[in-house]
Design the sequence.
């Protein structure tokens, strides 16, 4: 593509053609990326409305002869043992993710504010320590954390997950929020201070409302991270009634290795909450992610 | 930001030496209260595990977690790792996995961001669809692709047979030669949206006037991209590539769920291998030594990460 652009002679008519070349290249590329992204998800949906027998055919039925919602009904039926498990996993995931999100916001807001506003010795060091933590994989922490959790009696409780997710979500949460605080003019607070507000009042009355989009973004981010987390839940929890969705689905699948429609239906339903949350609030989400790295 | 940095520098110049530092810490004692909750949680859950991992890596540990019975064996765990064949195979896999995933995720994400930069009908919808793989759980993604790659009923195999390109559906993830590339395709599917988001935001910071001025001066599309757009994106590209590299180096779920490292270690990367050593074979000491080595590699990467970030900050300060 570059050669076309470089060798094309300059001139009004030729430039039009050249731009069209780029534009068509872009369109074809986007169509390709759309297929790459969407086809696996479409195939998941189509498989999820097949019967177990229809899914296991070669060549496959591109569209099921007899579409059925049986897999969804089975997963959502509280009378059925599969449905009971699935709903319990769903509820567990919801509880753990919500608790993590609320705690993250409570802890991250003051920390991010401090990183954005105050100069104290070690401020830069602390901030980079926060960022660096993001780089270390879960596996490094698994063995010692497992022992630590056992020592404080949190193994096989949701508390172990909430504490872990909180910690590992914090660096990113602080980073995201700091980007927002950096963009709120200090003068607003100073004006409030001059009018007699304490620093805390200025923070609560001026800064908090202005940073609401950042807090929303951080909350979604924590929620999605906790909802999708797998490795700690897989290691810390062993009792069936406490599993979260990712681990629960894996266990379900290792017992029913051929129920692909059920597996696809479960994958779909596991994705629905985060995808909906993301689509509704994507503006904040995307902005927050890029604030720190791009505008800084 | 600029004001804050300026103040720090002024203070640092006024009060050199340790007594100055201590006085400053005392002066700012109230400020630490804001960070304290975050620090305490992180000390418990991060600093202690790091210390413990380093300690365990010098011990021969019994299986099970009766760690009181461990014996000090010096660096034997490290020599055992570095002389094992599996180690080099896993390292090679990790290298291919990290480099290929990072490269293709970045290139595809960047290209998508460029293609989406111009406004057109349906752009918002398209962007939202493209980001979805990044939002859904990696466990769900692994199962979706496992089903797509299925050696008997997989859709890709069926398409290849239908088009006459293969006699029978290929074994994508059950064969030593194709398993790693197949998993990398899944990983890119999940990661390129991240690069796309970052680069889209980066593109918005490229000043329109510069592009228009370049156009007036007769620069063609490629020249405008190479001489105006790209230099503006250098920082955000560095940060994106580093974040992708770290995330890929640390990935676990996709290989673990899809193949568990098999067949015959062909898709084991460092993290899955460490996990298997620790929780599968209960060789805690060796697994810890592996973790420490990993740690050293990541610290090196981290150094460049911090340098790239503070490079950003310095530029902002001077501007």
Sequence:
């Amino acid at each position: 593509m570059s050669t076309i652009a470089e060798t094309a002679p300059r001139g009004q008519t030729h430039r039009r053609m050249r731009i069209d070349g780029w534009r068509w290249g872009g369109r074809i590329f986007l169509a390709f990326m759309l297929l790459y992204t969407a086809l696996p998800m479409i195939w998941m949906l189509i498989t999820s409305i097949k019967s177990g027998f229809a899914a296991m055919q070669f060549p496959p039925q591109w569209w099921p002869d007899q579409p059925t919602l049986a897999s969804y009904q089975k997963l959502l039926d509280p009378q059925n043992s599969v449905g009971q498990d699935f709903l319990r996993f769903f509820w567990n995931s919801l509880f753990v993710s919500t608790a993590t999100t609320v705690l993250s916001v409570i802890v991250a807001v003051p920390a991010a504010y401090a990183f954005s506003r105050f100069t104290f010795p070690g401020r830069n060091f602390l901030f980079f320590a926060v960022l660096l933590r993001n780089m270390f994989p879960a596996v490094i922490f698994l063995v010692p954390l497992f022992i630590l959790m056992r020592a404080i009696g949190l193994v096989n409780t949701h508390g172990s997950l909430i504490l872990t997710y909180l910690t590992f979500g914090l660096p990113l949460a602080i980073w995201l929020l700091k980007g927002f605080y950096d963009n709120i003019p200090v003068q607003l607070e100073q004006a409030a201070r001059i009018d007699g507000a304490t620093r805390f009042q200025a923070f609560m009355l001026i800064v908090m409302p202005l940073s609401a989009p950042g807090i929303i973004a951080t909350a979604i981010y924590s929620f999605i991270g906790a909802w999708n987390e797998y490795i700690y839940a897989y290691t810390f929890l062993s009792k069936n009634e406490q599993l979260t969705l990712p681990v629960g689905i894996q266990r379900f699948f290792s017992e029913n290795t051929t129920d692909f429609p059920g597996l696809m239906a479960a994958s779909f339903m596991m994705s629905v909450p985060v995808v909906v949350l993301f689509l509704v609030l994507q503006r904040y989400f995307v902005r927050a992610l890029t604030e720190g790295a791009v505008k800084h | 930001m600029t004001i804050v940095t300026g103040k720090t520098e002024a203070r640092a110049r006024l009060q050199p030496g340790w007594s100055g530092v201590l006085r400053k810490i005392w002066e700012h004692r109230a400020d630490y209260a804001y960070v304290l909750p975050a620090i305490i949680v992180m000390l418990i859950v991060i600093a202690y595990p790091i210390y413990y991992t380093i300690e365990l890596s010098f011990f021969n540990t019994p299986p099970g977690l009766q760690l009181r019975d461990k014996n000090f064996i010096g660096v034997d765990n490290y020599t055992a790792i570095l002389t094992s064949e599996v180690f080099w195979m896993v390292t090679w896999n990790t290298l291919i996995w990290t480099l290929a995933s990072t490269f293709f995720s970045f290139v595809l994400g960047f290209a998508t961001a460029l293609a989406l930069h111009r406004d057109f009908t349906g752009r918002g919808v398209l962007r939202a669809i493209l980001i979805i793989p990044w939002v859904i759980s990696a466990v769900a993604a692994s199962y979706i692709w496992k089903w797509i790659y299925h050696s008997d009923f997989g859709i890709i195999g069926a398409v290849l047979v239908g088009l006459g390109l293969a006699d029978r559906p290929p074994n994508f993830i059950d064969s030593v030669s194709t398993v790693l590339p197949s998993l990398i395709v899944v990983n890119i599917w999940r990661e390129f949206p991240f690069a796309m988001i970052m680069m889209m935001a980066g593109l918005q910071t490229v000043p329109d006037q510069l592009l228009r001025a370049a156009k007036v001066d007769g620069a063609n599309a490629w020249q405008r991209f190479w001489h105006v757009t790209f230099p503006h994106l250098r920082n955000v590209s560095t940060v994106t590539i580093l974040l992708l590299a770290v995330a890929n180096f640390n990935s676990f779920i996709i290989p673990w769920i899809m193949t568990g490292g098999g067949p015959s270690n062909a898709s084991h990367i460092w993290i899955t291998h460490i996990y298997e050593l620790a929780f599968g074979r209960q060789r805690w000491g060796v697994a810890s030594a592996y973790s420490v080595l990993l740690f050293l590699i990541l610290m090196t990467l981290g150094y460049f990460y911090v340098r790239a970030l503070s490079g950003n900050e310095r530029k902002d300060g001077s501007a």
Remarks:
- The beta strands of chain B are 59-60, 71-72.
